[in-house]
Queue: 2 jobs
Job 1
Amino acid sequence: MKGSNGDAPLTEIDPLNRTRFPADEWKLSERIYSKDDLGVTETLFAVGNGYLGMRGNVEEGREAHTHGTFINGFHEVWPIRHAEEAFGFARVGQTIVNVPDNKVMKLYVDDEPLLLSVADLESYDRSLDFRDGVLRREIIWRTPAGKRVKVTSERMVSFTQRHLAIMSIEVTMLDEGAPVVISSQVLNRQDGKDEYHVRAAAMGEGADPRKAEAFAERVLEPQTHWSGDDRILLGYRAANSKMTLAVGVDHQIDTENDYSQRMYADEDTGKMVYRVQARPGVPLKVTKTVAYHTSRGVPVRELVDRSRRTLDRVREQGVPQQFVEQREWLDAFWRRSDVEVAGQPELQQAIRWNLFQLAQATARAEQAGVPAKGVTGSGYGGHYFWDTEIYVLPFLTYTSPGMARSALRFRYNMLDAGRRRARDLTQRGALFPWRTINGEEASAYYAAGTAQYHIDADISYALCKYVAATGDDEFMWREGVDILVETARMWADLGFWREDGSRVFHIHGVTGPDEYTTVVNDNLFTNVMARFNLSKAAEVVQQMELSAPEAFERMVGRLGVTSEEVDEWAEVADAMAIPFDPQTGIHPQDSLFLEREVWDLERTPQSKRPLMLYYHPLVIYRFQVLKQADVVLALFLQGDHFTEAEKRADFEYYDAITTGDSTLSGVVQSIIAAEVGYHELALRYFTSSLFVDLVDLHGNTSDGVHVASTGGVWNALAYGFGGMRDYNGQITFDPRLPESWESLTFRVLLQGTRVRVHLTGDAIEFTAEEGNEPVVVSVRGRDLKVGAAGPVSVPLADQGPRIEADISLAAQRGGRREDGSLITATVPGL
Amino acid sequence: MKGSNGDAPLTEIDPLNRTRFPADEWKLSERIYSKDDLGVTETLFAVGNGYLGMRGNVEEGREAHTHGTFINGFHEVWPIRHAEEAFGFARVGQTIVNVPDNKVMKLYVDDEPLLLSVADLESYDRSLDFRDGVLRREIIWRTPAGKRVKVTSERMVSFTQRHLAIMSIEVTMLDEGAPVVISSQVLNRQDGKDEYHVRAAAMGEGADPRKAEAFAERVLEPQTHWSGDDRILLGYRAANSKMTLAVGVDHQIDTENDYSQRMYADEDTGKMVYRVQARPGVPLKVTKTVAYHTSRGVPVRELVDRSRRTLDRVREQGVPQQFVEQREWLDAFWRRSDVEVAGQPELQQAIRWNLFQLAQATARAEQAGVPAKGVTGSGYGGHYFWDTEIYVLPFLTYTSPGMARSALRFRYNMLDAGRRRARDLTQRGALFPWRTINGEEASAYYAAGTAQYHIDADISYALCKYVAATGDDEFMWREGVDILVETARMWADLGFWREDGSRVFHIHGVTGPDEYTTVVNDNLFTNVMARFNLSKAAEVVQQMELSAPEAFERMVGRLGVTSEEVDEWAEVADAMAIPFDPQTGIHPQDSLFLEREVWDLERTPQSKRPLMLYYHPLVIYRFQVLKQADVVLALFLQGDHFTEAEKRADFEYYDAITTGDSTLSGVVQSIIAAEVGYHELALRYFTSSLFVDLVDLHGNTSDGVHVASTGGVWNALAYGFGGMRDYNGQITFDPRLPESWESLTFRVLLQGTRVRVHLTGDAIEFTAEEGNEPVVVSVRGRDLKVGAAGPVSVPLADQGPRIEADISLAAQRGGRREDGSLITATVPGL
């Protein structure tokens, strides 16, 4: 598979440096400190709960790539200045704010500061534990004066109390005593002059569009600051978005040593300084309890009160109780969500790191969406994209449906903004913004943004999958149906009938998932997803009329739906244009795709990748070359509409011209590679997705975790190797266990019953772990009832077709002359 | 012709308010002052010479839409901030600067200022004389004290001395004496707080992309200021472009009255104040001589010296001599360039106003290009577009070939920048920027900018036409060929062969002239123009090898041209894809054009026009709707490649869906309407182009003259009604005189011989007015030798096909159901 991303930089299954990051199935550990890749490790060791996130900055606060603390949805707005204006261009830029940093707990021994990069460290161990959700660091430091000090610190963002974070540092002089100072700080870095700000401001020309915008003016306007005894309270309002924020900090010291303490607070800073006469062997421990409260409109004063209450509660309950609850929460999470690959500790660790990131990105997002980087970085400005619905929601739907529901309700709450946006684009119904925090379109580059109308269908798709898996009809009837109706209206209005006898419905001028080909006609992905959207809308409305007449009446009253338009949706869905090329037997990505030149990936050097950073969009768009799966994603999401032969032909064609320059690509290529029989390739794609952040394969892990890819890892496991599909409300399995794996075990929650799926080389076994209602799953057409009666097993003689991986797909694909040479008049970059 | 711009707001042939603007064949006069449309009249009464331009602001300096003085090419640069970045996006914004204003000569009588809008005016007359190139104003003002004052002023920008402008004001107390003050000023308005600046800064959101950018920071950094006796000298440097500027001003007073004078100058201001004890009937006249010198790099000191020399020369020669030379220059201009329509004084006036604007936009442009607004306003930022080559150069080539040569040399000097831009776009050869002042691409919106690769062919086309008409082979061989070679290389590299047996050469991902459909494949206009470019490049290189072997060798040494690549150009040209639809018999604008929905122009209200200000580009691009002629322009420029039937079918199809939202459209529609037989429509299109600024038909005349349209007016006269064509170096005629016109007379300079073409209803007559070599022209296939032997006349029984104008073209066009209703699933804007 030359030229595809299946053979990217990965040559081995486990590319981590195991001396530095030893394999451990339940945690990510680091044994060697390095200043060279702080951006990456800050992301890998970030802690968060979907609401509040703290990058894995060192406690000492100095050495950093980005000192980052982020609150999902807490953003500043700014007017987008287009260099050349046009009607309907996005107006309101939205950027996640770096909220005041509480991670800093500086340590001085004999007035010498600890600074890891120069410190004489006898030992260093940092680990993020997936079971108890705590980041721990333990070092033994030999001070410049030769005294050995043991320094242990912990950091935790609570899953059970979304506003709460707890940090501690414990210092023990091992050999002899010394004066020890702990300076615990809270710093408004957003408006400070620290590295983050300077770096962002310096980006200037040639900036990477994936990074967040920097602000030239003050963002967080101080509203109040207060300190007393052990507590600091700071309040802010964002200058333009007017969002409000309060931070509360409590401190506590436990030691047998003598000490004094001093408190200080001003508008941008809070400090608690402990001076301790540390005796050898007598530890001192400072614990810092932090509460963040934010709002779109509540006065700062009220948020300060809330912070005070959060802190008071922790004082009452005690800090240890928070750790107990954190563990309990995660125990439940892993019971619902764990995926096991037997006998592969390295893979197992990476899988759990990815799943843990999903928890950290979504658990307490609640009123907000799931940013592309979760709460681990400011990449993509903290915006919400379709990533959530297509890459993350399957995991949530089948393991934590309550979180899936929250994410969908978030979209429901954005409907009015979507209606306004549709009107801006001269369409009926609602058009969800391509990227947003507050519901308004923030995509300043419409060709690869606003033009991705498919987001409407993606949201409808995730909604329908959620309802089918959970049976939460009530949600559909009360709120979800509004999404379906308004998006169906958009599609019926956007497309048009061509009256050339064929009576086909076309959708023109849109961009599919692949951002290397934009503003096209009849994008296959868009059309099949719109078809789903339209027929589901019709189906749900008709079903409501029969099953829930009262809800139906209310819905009609609310939305004015008529039977004529419902009929139109069904009619339009049936007539949707589906590009197909009989000569090659493939589905062109859009009506003109096959007329384009084929980009010569084999002759494009790695120094020119990703293409988007080295070629003008006009150049890229002119070629058959993909940033990410497009048709192949359709083969996955709408697989019941494609034959096996079509899937294989499409996969082979597109795989050879897909760069994988987007991390949304690999997981999808893996799933379809597995389905059509490219087992080895499927595993390679899976592995490169699994390690995309752990090994920084895309070079931008420093901007935050690729959350969509972490969701995609679960998809690749359950759908790809597990062979699960969920078309038409049915759960089916046709597995593809990699030959090198002993077994694969995962869980899916179906109608409230948690089913453990255990796959080995020769059988698949289903066990109802929780829930009383039996559920039906189907293995290769054979229905099985899984319930209290115990495990059900089906033997499997083989696992799908197996195509030899050394087959040269490139030679089979189109776009070549008979002698096999590429049809490329232009060889970009050479 | 419903829905086309043929029946736009014009219902009569002459829409000017004749009470205010009386018809006069040789000047534009204004008899009623109005504050309501100052933006328009400032443009209509602007004076300039292609280098220096002054808007028609009133002398009093207060009431204005835009106080503007512009120097062609004198610009400031600024970093373009794209809201979302991508590789290769334009980086350097370029905006013409409002240079220090010398137009102000304030008048006070009894210390009461003259302010036209409130003054009690007994008479008012302002006129711009096309024969002597002087703007004159004469008013009789009754002061608040009841004294009558005659105020006469003049303003002239010299065609013979490009750096020179002269203004004067003469005041005579008619009834009784009074103290009179004249305050003559020079003001740096670019960095001042006047209306212009405030208005531009306030534009902010929703700005019209056709207007210039405002600057937040100081642009003109003062370098020197000096005053003494009657002279003021100011020097500046633009903060970022580092361009330099000097302004020198001399004053002179002529009067029998007693007076005193006072001079003042600081960094941003110069003032000469005369206090005169004016006796009744004793005139006083203040004359102001102004010199502007600019440079890209010469020190300000040197420019100050040049300004001093210009002023000294005028002192020596005297001011009256300047007016004599101005008149002589214009006499020669009109001898070369006049177009006469007998018996139609209103049309004649408008035609001469348009031709006069061409002189004002081009005469002394010399090292610079021709900005879209000439030097009459800052619209489009003072940028150069393809307008020059396609709309303006035919006029220059056939009437003032020296100016055509200057414009082409300007492009030649931009070749290196074009080579760099081609590399940015991953192409060989050179790609001229879509819009620029300094040679760098300044188009921040690539879809309707950079993607218009056709600019390469437009420049080559104009070059070849110039050489064919003048026989200036030496220019072609020494410099022009470099343009041809580098653009041919770009085309051969940009397109590609599709190896499907047909062996056709395709060009993908470009935008044609029509900006309502962007980034398409095989745009017909682009392909036929690229074909011309490629075959001409091959032809010229081959011809050079035979005719000018030394120049050929030098060229090969310079450009490394090989015979293989020359062969490739010819091969590519022969195989160029030309979209044609046998079913409708028309040429689709691009390979997919006919698959689009048809925009329902009939149901789009005027309040939603122009479309670009009311619809998102994505919406507009999705439909069959044109901003401007595209295929129809190809029918004109490459008419020898289309049959009569094709031209008619294409014209009828596209005319019905062309909005004419660009002023580049009407003149072209007029030419082809005339050719295919829609005589009445041709006249309507012509008239609306003729009056586009005079009646402000597009609502933005205040931004400056639509120079391309003024050039198009000449094209419509010579090519449209005159029926001239110049394919393959041959000059042919097949006229289409409007029935309502007695005769049409124009001149074309062919190989140095000026031929007067006189067309009446029944004959066409050619007279060699100047030059000794006889030239051959052809009338309907019959060759005529025109020379010293005297006029040659050919009788014409008819003038082309005549299609009844009431034929409903709309019913004939595609995109309709059988019952005649439009195929539009969406009705935008309704």
Note: The longest helix of chain B spans residues 524-547.
Job 2
Amino acid sequence: MAYYETMFDQLDVTAAQLLVNDSSFRDKEFRKQLNETVKSMLDLRVIPIFNENDAISTRRAPYQDSSGIFWDNDSLAALLALELKADLLILLSDVEGLYTGPPSDPNSKLIHTFIKEKHQDEITFGDKSRLGRGGMTAKVKAAVNAAYAGIPVIITSGYAAENIDKVLRGLRVGTLFHQDARLWAPITDSTARDMAVAARESSRKLQALSSEDRKQILYSIADALEANEKTIRAENELDVATAQEAGLEESLVARLVMTPAKISSLAGSVRKLADMEDPIGRVLKKTEVADGLVLEKTSSPLGVLLIVFESRPDALVQIASLAIRSGNGLLLKGGKEARRSNAILHKVITDAIPETVGGKLIGLVTSREEIPDLLKLDDVIDLVIPRGSNQLVSQIKNTTKIPVLGHADGICHVYVDKACNVDMAKRIVSDAKLDYPAACNAMETLLVHKDLEQNAVLNELIFALQSNGVTLYGGPKASKILNLPEARSFNHEYCSKACTVEVVEDVYGAIDHIHRHGSAHTDCIVTEDPEVAELFLRQVDSAAVFHNASTRFSDGFRFGLGAEVGISTGRIHARGPVGVEGLLTTRWIMRGKGQVVDGDNGIAYTHQDIPIQA
Amino acid sequence: MAYYETMFDQLDVTAAQLLVNDSSFRDKEFRKQLNETVKSMLDLRVIPIFNENDAISTRRAPYQDSSGIFWDNDSLAALLALELKADLLILLSDVEGLYTGPPSDPNSKLIHTFIKEKHQDEITFGDKSRLGRGGMTAKVKAAVNAAYAGIPVIITSGYAAENIDKVLRGLRVGTLFHQDARLWAPITDSTARDMAVAARESSRKLQALSSEDRKQILYSIADALEANEKTIRAENELDVATAQEAGLEESLVARLVMTPAKISSLAGSVRKLADMEDPIGRVLKKTEVADGLVLEKTSSPLGVLLIVFESRPDALVQIASLAIRSGNGLLLKGGKEARRSNAILHKVITDAIPETVGGKLIGLVTSREEIPDLLKLDDVIDLVIPRGSNQLVSQIKNTTKIPVLGHADGICHVYVDKACNVDMAKRIVSDAKLDYPAACNAMETLLVHKDLEQNAVLNELIFALQSNGVTLYGGPKASKILNLPEARSFNHEYCSKACTVEVVEDVYGAIDHIHRHGSAHTDCIVTEDPEVAELFLRQVDSAAVFHNASTRFSDGFRFGLGAEVGISTGRIHARGPVGVEGLLTTRWIMRGKGQVVDGDNGIAYTHQDIPIQA
């Protein structure tokens, strides 16, 4: 106590000792009094320091219950936290927190979030802490009691002076005990790397299965989805209710809802994927390298995918089944709005995966704080696919060395040429902007050939958009001609019923504008002149280039790719709308009869293509 | 001077004024004395501060020559630097350095390295500096005089207190004048970004050409290589001489040499590439999406490539012609040993590219300091291909967000199964290690089935290697059985006549070992058991997996890919030995008749594959 006083004095803070007895807590009046006393002391900026009043204690053996009686300093602290309705209880130890085994054993891992159901039996407690009476067993018991009575508890090391500060700043320090932990952190005790490594190991087992066995897994998943319809809907309804309470936008809530029809349609699409030709091990190229030496280029799974998606829980089912079809391991991070739906869907799917593959093929990442850890694992994760806002995609692209498949921007152009069919131009321009204004393949900039100003076609196009409620902004030329407010930048994605208009010299001007200001997503020309069309199709360097068709067609399903993994504006690997092939790479398989290189002497290279049997 | 004294006093340093006259320098004795005086002062830690002795100066008009007479403080400084044989002269200005135009003009760019031949006529000098007598014109004149007399000069801003410190730490501050600048920094005045942007613009012009025109460019390059054989050899001989003087390893010098045969073979390979089927615009997939709506997936150039290669100058020709064939822009950085050879080869190739495409299609980066700048440009460079040491590749992979195609490690395994043909096993194992021990596809670890210990096959394999001078290290099992020194790690690439040996349980043990310790480059099984072979081929998850053939076949030329871009151990984009297809991406081209999406109403998706016409 003298030491506490000396230390607090340096901060000009007064500390006061309160010596209590276990028996005192039996008295209701004492408890009330205690609350008031502590409150008054805190108002006076006096720090109460509790300890057991050993001198008058009558206790013989330590109590082992939580009936309001304490049995050491840890349980005293838990008890006080409850009585005083503390916001947080911090228990300081001589180790970083609770480990899965003795902290001195290098195989022991720090548990970041304690989950009673999971950890209670799993943990091997070592010797008790060298300081004070209570060891880690006692601390955990106290922490569990307080946590499940509603007081969050953190056990952390008292040796690092900054730990308390870190805890208060919400950083991941020590071990957290919280009554809801089981709901929101089923995986945080396994490190990100462990998850990725386990997913890769399982994916290798999946790849070793026969094509028929992999197909069967998808059928089992489809059946399991239908069989668990009620459970899925029950969990989904909780998500929907939470979203409505939180005042989430109606359109977002609608995307969250899993109707029986949606579940059955999802099961149907999983079966469709199962019936698809096996994408793994397809021979893409076959060459006779030399007599009796045959080389094949075959399709092969990428390895481990990390997919970060927002809101819609059905995406989880689509992505998981795509990963299984393509033999990949998967780490999934869904939006928090769909937390319960994602958890149940993940469970239903994982339970349907046979033990020979293992339940860790698909890992569900539930806390946002895991993401930065996962993005660092460029040696064990092969591809990240973010499906969500531009901000999400950009943020991921900027923070990871893992290849990212996706698109941050969708600045799509429609160029209306002087040789256009005017009705067609109006139809395409309207559809490209209005069919779904917030989509990444919606038109953001309309480019019009200068000759269309004279014959009033420009005005017709403008009217077609404005009469449907589209707000228009002009480039330097168009804003003068049409008396429109000037667009702040041509590189702007509105994602709403708004777009930029500009007048260009000709098709070359349009191409130049698109190269300068586009995002290489999808661009379209409307013209009846086949030469101009081909010029545009050949020269515009975007992932998708259309002639006389709405930019809205730029989509995996509309392209006929089956399930869509995402749309990529990158140039490496897959580009544009990406189907299952974006989840595959290749391997070179060579079968010989003992051939050696030996300085390329004694081998006659033939390099003959061998036709691939269908 | 009083101000200098006050300032230096604070640092406990004494400063002393030396007032000199232009006429003093005519006296040889004065110059000798001056040297001794300054030396003594510096020994006493006294800072000499020179100024013109205006009071006794007889000069009327400023002198404009460099005969040893100064005409302002800048020329006085240059003169003193020469007389005192300074290591470096720093001229402080009120702007950051020398700009291409008036520093206030936003179009003016800071010149990092001044090249007399290039900049003398190009620069527009503005008003003279507001401080002191000498403007920028005077400074540049003084700097050029000192630099070409052997004293490096930097002009930088005197406003930033840390600039002198930065200059001394070798950071890129201000404008550097050096007599060799023209040799090693022909491009440093154009920023890295400008080079990349110019290469992309030129590549678009190249892509707009007909296939025949692109072919013709390659023919012109081949002709130019032969026509310029003498010049190329002359420059190459200078590189070779320098390398020999520097005591470079003989094998490295040999790789540097460009014989007439090599030049003619290079020209031949460029012509061969010209005759190859045009890789751009090939239709890879064709689908009828709906009636009258046809979708094509076509091959398309990546954009701009950055290739960093070491030593061999012929790589420059191969890479440049591959880039042209695939319609890509290119930035090249070669090794400094091949500086002159690379420069002349680059010039010969660039001169053969027609003006319609432009000379900036292929940029030659000559100074190492440009590389970090280039690696930051992930928005304008699409792919980096490092061809060189593991260290080079790792370093590049760790410092850039641009996708990297290549391999850092080549830890290749040969697994000899119990059912092997022993002679074949010895032949393959010897070739895999000895054909070229430093190659990335050479065997680093030999795995042997445990049954081969009993029948002495293990000993035969060991003898085959040891008798050819291979140093062997054993894993925990093999080191005991064979009494070998223990290998420090299984994840080790020797790159020399050394390798690790380990005994494994069976093919599963081998596969597990390879997944745990390999680099997914090339792995081989030697067995006569077709089932075991297929298991190995299917399950080993490496870029190349061989049955009964040496790992040394893992190579673009031996695979029959034509020119080799590199070997990739990544899983995204191309994998294993990569030919021209690694420099291509895809574009989706859609041709319609005015179709719109309109919520997918009124359109009947057919998604029929259309056969591709050859």
Note: The two ends of chain B are 84 Å apart (CA to CA).
